[in-house]
Specification:
Layout (H helix, E strand, L loop, with lengths): L2 E5 L3 H12 L3 E5 L15 E2 L12 H8 L7 E3 L5 H13 L2 H28 L10 E5 L2 H16 L4 E5 L3 H4 L9 E5 L3 E2 L2 H14 L3 E3 L4 E7 L2 E7 L2 E4 L2 E4 L5 H7 L7 E10 L10 E3 L4 E6 L2 E10 L9 H14 L14 E7 L6 E4 L6 E5 L5 H16 L14
Parallel strand pairs: 1-2, 1-13, 2-9, 4-17, 5-15, 13-20
Antiparallel strand pairs: 3-8, 5-7, 6-7, 10-11, 11-12, 14-17, 14-18, 15-16, 16-17, 19-20
Helix pairs in contact: 1-7, 1-10, 4-10
Bound molecules: flavin-adenine dinucleotide.
């Protein structure tokens, strides 16, 4: 049994804590917040083996440049004269090619399928988080986007995922909850969804039941090293010693990594969501409204919409109404009968997706310190990939054979 300290109590930190405590370790999670909000709570709750194409892909840069001049567009890079942004952008440019996509797809598929199986296991233990396997519909309104989606669907089919290609007339047979003006869809049958807040509560309870400890509102003040090991961490709540440390601080990982003399290229991709409570008329199946990149997820009696990706900094905490209006416009274009209005600012949630320039997560042992593991950079797939990441962190700590190849998940 080892003593482990995890830095960051989002879904990645909590899943790591859960699998480490299941394996019999004594685990403490340290978080500067109170583990009640943030990126792991208001997201769209989609478990997406379908998402095998990383964000760094051909065509993304030209699309991004076009979208930058539209204040309601789904993607935006906040221009700043900042070396981290320039360096991230140059790396993104280097990765946005076919070779990177071809290499990444099987690795993402394997990680995702492992995660989905672990979600299945967790839900059979106690499903308090509304886990459902209804797949994901990629709905589109234009021929051009339809072609792109069919192409992505065929790639997924070739990699062994279950995919259906739907014409306009087929959609109402599957989506019986609400009418849509989409002209076609790709249905990824392998995808699933859940209610993120409920899953986070479930995880916390299971972790605490296993003897795990949570130290919230805890700020790190200093780190002590002995040769090539981290010995302890000084915080406002005292000194934490451990055999191993796990860095899982999402978009804040680079600033924490600096304390461990480690450079991480991760920028926050800010996104928004809002949730309609007790929504009577709502889609039955989670969907992505492709032209506007809006995610739509039915969650128990509620309905959540999420979207936009603004590459920015963690100090950017304002709600940008134009971007939220962009989400609302897309919803009303796809679902003519829903009549969704702009949510109040107090009802609009935002979160920072931790984005690496390769579009691949980092699940790796540190090169610098023997007892540091990095688990971060999951961008738009952190919920989907969290159980698999937690399991791999446990396997790295215990020097066990890894459940999937992690060669592409290195810094
Ligand atoms: C609109 C939107 C929709 C999304 N939809 C989906 C989806 O459908 N499916 C999916 O898979 N993913 C989705 N995501 C992405 C997903 O939410 C993230 O990838 C995931 O939540 C990241 O988890 P994390 O644990 O790495 O980071 P976080 O949840 O951000 O957790 C990091 C934690 O570290 C803590 N921390 C920060 N600094 C310190 C410090 N100095 N000391 C201690 N603790 C610290 C923070 O307080 C925080 O609790 C979506 C994101 C957005 C914004």
């Amino acid at each position: 049994m080892k003593n482990i300290v995890i830095l960051g109590g989002g879904i990645i930190g909590l899943c790591s804590g859960y699998y480490l405590s299941e394996a019999g370790h004594k685990v403490t999670i340290i978080d500067k917040g109170d583990l009640s909000e943030g990126c792991s709570y208001g997201n769209a709750g989609m478990i997406v083996p379908s998402h095998i194409i990383p964000l760094a892909q051909p065509g993304m840069i030209s699309k991004g440049i076009k979208w930058m001049f539209d204040s309601k567009s789904p993607f935006y890079v906040e221009p700043r004269l900042n070396w981290e942004l320039i360096s991230w952008g140059l790396k993104f440019y280097k990765y946005a090619n076919d070779k990177h996509v071809t290499r990444s797809m099987p690795a993402l598929r394997d990680l995702s399928l492992l995660s989905k199986n672990l979600y299945k296991d967790l839900s059979s233990k106690l499903d308090t988080f509304y886990y459902q396997e209804k797949g994901l519909l990629m709905l589109f309104k234009t021929e051009k986007v339809g072609e792109e989606e069919y192409h992505a669907g065929k790639e997924a089919l070739n990699l062994g995922l279950e995919v259906d290609f739907l014409e306009q007339n087929d959609i109402p047979n599957l989506e019986t909850g609400v009418a849509t003006s989409a002209i076609g869809a790709v249905h990824y049958k392998s995808d699933a969804h859940l209610y993120p807040q409920k899953f986070m509560s479930f995880l916390k309870e299971e972790f605490l039941k296993n003897g795990g400890q949570i130290s919230d509102k805890t700020e790190i003040e200093n780190v002590y090293f002995k040769k090539n090991r981290i010995q302890s961490i000084q915080t406002n709540k005292g000194l934490f010693e451990a055999d191993d440390f796990v860095l899982a601080a999402g978009s804040w990982s680079p600033e924490l990594a600096r304390l461990f003399n480690t450079k991480l290229s991760i920028l926050p991709g800010k996104g928004y969501s809002f949730t309609l409570k007790n929504q009577g008329v709502k889609p039955e199946i989670p969907s992505i409204l492709c032209e506007g990149k809006v995610a739509v997820t039915p969650m128990a009696n509620d309905l959540r919409f999420g979207g936009t990706m603004e590459i920015t900094h963690t100090g950017n905490t304002k709600i940008n109404k134009n971007r939220v209006q962009g989400i609302v416009n897309t919803i009303n274009e796809f679902y003519p009968n829903l009549n969704i209005g702009l949510p109040k600012e107090s009802e609009t949630w935002y979160g920072f997706r931790p984005c690496t320039p390769s579009g691949m997560p980092i699940i790796d042992k540190s090169d610098t310190y023997d007892n540091l593991i990095l688990a971060t950079g999951h961008a738009m797939m952190g919920l989907s990939l969290a159980p698999a990441t937690g399991k791999l962190v446990q396997e790295l700590v215990d020097s066990e054979k890894l459940s999937v190849d992690t060669n592409l998940f290195k810094i």
